[in-house]
Amino acid sequence: MAQDCPSKVDTELHEHTTKGEMEPVTTVDPVAEKKLLRKCDLALIPPLMTIYFLSFMDRTNIGNARIQGMTADLHMQGSDYNIALFVFFIPYIIFEVPSNIIIKRISPSLWLSSITVLWGISTIGMGLVNNNAGLIGCRLLLGLFEAGIVPGAIYLISMYYQRYEVQWRMSIFFCASILAGAFSGLLAFAIGHMHGVGGYSSWRWIFILEGLVTVVVGVISKWWIPDWPETAKFLTEEERGRLVARLAADVGSARMDHLDKRAMKRIAKDWKIYVGTIAYMGILNNGYAGSFFIPSILNQMGFKSAEAQLRTIPIYVVATVLCLGAAYLADRTRHRYTYTVVGVAVATTGYIMLLCQSSIPLGARYFALFLIVGGGYMSQPVVLGWLANVVSGHYKRSVASAFQVGFGNVGGFVSSNVFLDREAPYYTTGYSVSLGMMAVCAIFCTILYFGVIRENKKRDRGERDYRLQKPDADNLGDDHPEWRFAT
Fold first, then answer.
1. CA 298 to CA 162: how far, in whole Å?
2. What is the mean pLDDT of residues 406-423?
3. Sign of the CA dihedral 198, 202, 203, 206?
């Protein structure tokens, strides 16, 4: 199942009905359903895409700043740049799950807008620092405040849609990070002409201007981002009732409305969460490797700073097309596994080409970057959506999505430390490790695929029916015998 039904969706349907506050709509009206989904799409996806776009641009624009003089001005040497990259991931990984707990306590609009403003201020700070220690401090704050964006946005998106409606929306949301890579290069190219304005180098203006935009959007987001479905102001009372009813029907009996000891034990022992997280870690390494180092790789291929910035744009445009194509087919065929391994295979081809770059022409090396980024973004959002498809129950999905995004970012930690300046322009360690991480993703996606097929067959044979006799039979989540996993 691919949506995180909020506590209120699952538990308040009965309350609203008995109080007469919201009558659930039980009839299926295709025209009304289509209109409802369109309204949800227009109200939900644009603001979340916008803040994710800004978050990804603000965490990766350091790659563009690097080739515009940042390392020289801050007297960065040796592994200083790598350290500035990986410190971001320390608070980012630690605070993912706590953030998703907080967002359930307060409104999504208040929480997401607040952390957007705070990380925007941190980004501005990166443009004002005078040494490497100051940059590291700002990167730590950036990781702390950005930690809640992806799990919070995924949680909110998945609250509004049924299981096989989510992948397309999630991938559209995820395309914000791809477009950020393209736009960041274009913006860095334009800002490059501001060198000396106000006494600041051009790399400082990258952080200052992009941070200011983030702060402004963060303030606006308080009134732009919708809250939980049953309080959504953009819907009529009838539409809210219809939305709540269709989400509850999609959950069926596989609910987890209470976070007691038994529920926590079920969550902690679920192998799917760990397998899905490791698969995500493998593919996420690829995404950060591209964002952090592609400008430098192009620069070291012989392209000047401005040329390198511009040549990143078509790479991300192609990746956007591949990402949305895979998402559309994944939802239409109600299948995930094939699209993950195809994307991994495409990216793997690119890494192999770059490992052999001494014997291939410049054009082929540039084409390899298209394969790496495009293949990676084919797989990455599908891996995210797939884990959401194989866990059920509001509490379980909330923890699973935050755990996957949080600990999956170990992949970003890895990518920050394997592209070594002393190995430029061949980056043998970076490409080799990234190739290995592609294999990790493929292996664990395969484990998940055959694991859920095996479990579905056991349930078809009635081998899990004994769970209905347990004291927590009404709070089993996806352990409920009626639940079937997506493949």
1. 42
2. 80
3. positive
CA distances 330 to 122, 338, 344, 387, 486, Å, are 37, 9, 15, 13, 11
Which residues fall within 8 angstroms of residue 217, CB to CB, at 6 or more apart?
A: 50, 51, 54, 116, 120
Token code pair at residue 182: 């393209």
Domain with residue 222: its CATH number is 1.20.1250.20
CA-CA distance, 122 to 269, in Å (whole number)?
37
Name the token pair of 57: 């641009």
The answer to whether 99 and 331 have CB atoms below 8 angstroms apart is no
Which residues lie closer than 8 Å to 353 by C-beta, 6 or more apart?
360, 364, 365, 367, 368, 371
Whether residue 485 lies inside any domain: the answer is: no
Tracing tokens 């890494």 back to the chain, one arrives at 351
Number of domains the chain contains = 1
For residues 306 and 193, the answer to whether their CB atoms sit within 8 Å is no
* Cis peptide upstream of residue 425 (ω within 30 degrees of 0): yes
Is 278 within the bounds of a domain? yes
- Residue among 22, 66, 25, 31 nearest 416 (CA): 66
What are the b/e assignments for 425-436, b being 16+ CB within 10 Å? eebeebbebbbe
Neighbours of 94 (CB within 10 A): 15
> Can you give the residue range of the structural domain that contains 192?
7-479
Average pLDDT score, the chain: 84
pLDDT digits (tens, 9 = 90+) for 269-293: 999 999 999 999 999 888 777 666 6
